[in-house]
């Protein structure tokens, strides 16, 4: 048998609602019965107080013996008992009976109220009072049979219980139907999701027109499916681009080796090896860049540390001689929380790009701007057209000028650089410039 945690939503909601209604009806029945009982007994108490007061006054003044006349139609059981416990007077309904078996009141003039069983009379509500007469103390009893109340109490309670059971069952049935109807769009949504195999990027779930939470859920599912469709589309395009980029050097390498092997005696094998090594280097670069992109896209955790961005830039720009001079304006104390090798990769990619296009000089600057650290690399080349400033960050996208200057590039450098900037919570853009290309990276400062 499944535990409640394994039940369906419909079963759990129905069970919870039915249990809650059942408890409320049970409490209501108990309170209702207690209210009726209290009303009945309070009525008897008030009426009995009046009857016992009249009877006590009569006994105190006359000290009757024999038969007592009944004045109240409900309190028909009247009895007067002396101090020795002998009955000195009673109503006709108690004629010949012994004293009522009720505790005697100890205080004169203070009535006592009891419910007792009287043989032949069933349950009786008895009011007793101690009275002083000229012949001594007397105990006066006035009783009202409550046979009607006790007789119908069982059927009355049974009727209330039956009504509670019927009402609880009706509520459970209504809740079950309501939940089933409310979850009908969810079942439809589940069936439609089960039919999506992954190859159909245009499939969506039906959005009900109710405007409630289920409708919002369907809209959220469709938003997620749209995002997944976009991811699938980009993944397919990426696979196609990777296949193309890898095929070119592999095809060239294979062609060079096949030509060389056809007439090995006529080939300059060191030159063949250098050409093959060039294609292998290009393949290695592409594979290395793809691995970096894959790690960044998968969110692989990389250790970070507190880095002075200005010192890091000055140290890295001095490691390698460039084709053109490099002017450095890097402020000190620009601290960031970053992975040093990733920041170095961004700087290297931007410097290599600037070196390919620069005519006479490259400018590199580091500064703090509000809550951000800003790394800027600028050259005095032909620049980037406004319509191409976003396209240069696409994978395997190289502008014609870049291909003319260097044919062996992979077209992934700027893509990797932007992904690294985003992984550090920042941005990388191709900004406006009076002359040449200007790349600006912004990442959050470390204020510790």
Terminal CA distance reads: 58 Å
Say how many strands there are: 13
The top-level CATH class of the largest domain is: Alpha Beta
Uncertain segments of ≥5 residues (pLDDT<50)? Answer: none
Q: Within the CATH hierarchy, at the fold level, what is the topology of the largest domain?
A: Beta-Lactamase
Percent range for helical residues? 40-55%
Rg computed from alpha carbons, rounded to a whole number of angstroms: 50 Å
Domain HAMP: 180-233
Subcellular location: Cell membrane
Main location: membrane
InterPro entries: HAMP_dom, HATPase_C_sf, HATPase_dom, His_kinase_dom, HisK_dim/P_dom, HisK_dim/P_sf, Sig_transdc_His_kin-like_C, TCS_sensor_his_kinase
Walkthrough of the structure:
The protein is of the alpha+beta class and 448 residues long. The chain folds into three domains: 11-155, Beta-Lactamase, CATH 3.30.450; 213-296, Orthogonal Bundle (Helix Hairpins); 302-444, Heat Shock Protein 90 (2-Layer Sandwich), CATH 3.30.565. The chain contains nine helices and 13 strands. It has helices at 9-62, 147-182, 184-194, 213-262, 269-298, 309-317, 340-357, 400-405, 413-423; strands spanning 66-68, 77-82, 87-91, 112-118, 122-133, 136-145, 305-308, 326-330, 335-338, 362-369, 372-379, 427-430, 438-444. The strands form three sheets. The chain has a six-stranded mixed β-sheet with strand order 1-3-2-6-5-4, covered by helices on one side. The protein has a five-stranded mixed β-sheet with strand order 8-10-11-13-12. The longest helix is centred in the N-terminal third of the chain and has 54 residues, at 9-62. 22% of the residues are buried.
